[in-house]
């Protein structure tokens, strides 16, 4: 049916289905039918088709090379945040210290070129990236359109979650509200219900998939409710059944400017995934390994993202920039900025937005955002300030001599883009990062369930035990 309908008719039917459908399940079916090309597979069908071969490949690989040593661990790594130890499997992306992130082998410029875009848009659609991360395949435009409609059809929040959000004190940090609301979605978990009913292991991924899509569909509404409750008049716009995810999210937040919509598409895409060892990804994966639902697993990841050394750095950057601006009173010379950087370092604080546990060059996510600013507002005062800091900070941090990476990371730039379009509330910024992170960590959760990944349980020792171990090792040498 879908192939013979015009886009206009399809959109009209979708709108009317959206208004009339009482059942969430029917709505998802309508969304999938109207937008997908009859000959093309849905995301779930695509994944179902590729996963048996992937599971077999992993099984054979483990059988043949399972005992091969792939790393050695030094004592300093046990005390140093396990930095660099290989021990997690993460299919969606790999981070190279010099080059930055690759999503299924593709750099950020690659995905900007290769992923489907909205009509008239230049930026990739985050739901297309989700498809790529889950399956390793680039979806067609109509497949993404069907996925956008499917996600929109899952956006309704249960009343208890709306009530919870409406009753939080405004002083509760937006990230705490966000994680609590996601936790409270547990009532909706199809995985938890199926598990309680004793569904077989081979079926786990199907319920995890459904929960993950439900969660993705609801996140923009949760995030927008927090934004509007804390900073605006509490009301949020309606989801548009025909719009893509980024457009819907921007509109729910109350921003209809097309450039802001484009920014949201880019923002959600580049903040999604950064391999598996970062705090939010690893936490989601770890909690998920105990077979907690996607809602519980992801809310645990959000609590990690809320830390100032991780996702909250985007808020810290803005606060730091504003203090700088206040202090230097319009003097944005390199000398003044250098002095401010030294003052920050000499007071024992970190320079937010600089440094990284893995990267050793400028973060390509920073570059992508810088290019967005150069294209849309090269003369914006705050952008110019960020650019001058970029010229000065690496030299200062190198002279300071502590950080292994003096270059800017993703958080150094994102806030300035949001400021330009009028989203000035810095304490909300990490919530945007959180919505984006779901696109990266949920595919791995689904894959983990599909390949039967075990519960994670690395070994810990006390210092006494490590001393014993070292004594045993050194006495043998
Ligand atoms: N300013 C000042 N000192 C810094 C620094 C910075 N931006 N980055 C690292 N250092 C210091 C560390 O605090 C550490 O000092 P101590 O030896 O006194 O503990 C030393 O340099 C070595 O750290 P490192 O090995 O280079 O970095 P880590 O892997 O330990 O930490 C990170 C990485 C990101 C937490 C750190 O660079 C940092 O705190 N940066 C500022 C916060 C930030 O921008 N975080 C966002 C990262 C991206 C994200 O996850 O969103």
From TrEMBL:
GO terms for biological process: carbohydrate metabolic process; citrate metabolic process; tricarboxylic acid cycle. GO terms for cellular component: mitochondrial matrix. InterPro entries: Citrate_synth-like_lrg_a-sub, Citrate_synth-like_sm_a-sub, Citrate_synthase, Citrate_synthase_AS, Citrate_synthase_euk, Citrate_synthase_sf. GO terms for molecular function: acyltransferase activity, acyl groups converted into alkyl on transfer. Pfam families: Citrate_synt (PF00285). It comes from the Eukaryota. The keyword Transferase applies. The active site is at residues 310, 356, 411. SUPFAM superfamilies: Citrate synthase (SSF48256). Keywords: Transferase. PROSITE patterns: CITRATE_SYNTHASE (PS00480). Belongs to the citrate synthase family. PANTHER family: CITRATE SYNTHASE, CITRATE SYNTHASE, MITOCHONDRIAL. This is Citrate synthase. The lineage of its organism: Eukaryota, Fungi, Dikarya, Ascomycota, Saccharomycotina.
């Amino acid at each position: 049916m879908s192939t013979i309908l015009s886009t206009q008719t399809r959109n009209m039917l979708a709108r009317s289905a959206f208004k009339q459908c009482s059942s969430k399940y029917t709505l998802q079916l309508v969304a999938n039918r109207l937008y997908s090309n009859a000959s093309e597979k849905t995301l779930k069908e695509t994944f179902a088709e590729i996963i048996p071969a992937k599971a077999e490949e992993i099984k054979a690989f483990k059988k043949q090379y399972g005992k091969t040593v792939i790393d050695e661990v030094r004592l300093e790594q046990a005390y140093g945040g396990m930095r660099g130890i290989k021990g997690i499997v993460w299919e969606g992306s790999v981070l190279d210290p010099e080059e930055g992130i690759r999503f299924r082998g593709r750099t950020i410029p690659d995905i900007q070129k290769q992923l489907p875009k909205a009509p008239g848009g230049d930026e990739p659609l985050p739901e297309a990236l989700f498809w790529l991360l889950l399956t390793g395949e680039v979806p067609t435009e109509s497949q993404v359109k069907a996925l956008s409609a499917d996600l929109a059809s899952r956006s309704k929040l249960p009343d208890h979650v709306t009530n919870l959000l409406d009753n939080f004190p405004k002083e509760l940090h937006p990230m705490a509200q966000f994680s609590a609301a996601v936790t409270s979605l547990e009532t909706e978990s199809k995985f938890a219900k199926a598990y309680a009913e004793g569904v077989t292991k081979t079926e786990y991924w199907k319920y995890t998939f459904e929960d993950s899509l439900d969660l993705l569909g609801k996140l923009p509404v949760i995030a927008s409710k927090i934004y509007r409750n804390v900073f605006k008049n509490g009301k949020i716009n309606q989801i548009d059944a025909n719009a893509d995810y980024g457009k819907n999210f921007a509109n729910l937040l109350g921003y209809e400017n097309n450039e802001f919509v484009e920014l949201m598409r880019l923002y959600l895409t580049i903040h999604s995934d950064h391999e598996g060892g970062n705090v939010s990804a690893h936490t989601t994966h770890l909690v998920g390994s105990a077979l907690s639902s996607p809602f519980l697993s992801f809310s645990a990841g959000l609590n990690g993202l809320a830390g100032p050394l991780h996702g909250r750095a985007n808020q810290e950057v803005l606060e730091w920039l504003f203090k700088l601006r206040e202090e230097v009173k319009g003097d944005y010379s390199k000398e003044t900025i250098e002095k401010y950087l030294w003052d920050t370092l000499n007071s024992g604080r970190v320079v937010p937005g600089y440094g990284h546990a893995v990267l050793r060059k400028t973060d390509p996510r920073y570059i992508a955002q810088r290019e967005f600013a150069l294209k849309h507002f090269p003369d914006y005062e705050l952008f110019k300030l960020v650019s001058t800091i970029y010229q000065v900070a690496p030299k200062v941090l190198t002279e300071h001599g502590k950080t292994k990476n003096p270059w800017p990371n993703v958080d150094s730039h994102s806030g300035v883009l949001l400021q330009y379009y009028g989203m000035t509330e810095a304490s909300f910024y990490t919530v945007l990062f959180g919505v984006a992170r779901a696109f990266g960590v949920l595919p791995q959760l689904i894959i983990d369930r599909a390949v039967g990944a075990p519960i994670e349980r690395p070994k810990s020792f006390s210092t006494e035990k490590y001393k014993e171990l070292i004594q045993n090792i050194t006495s043998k040498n």
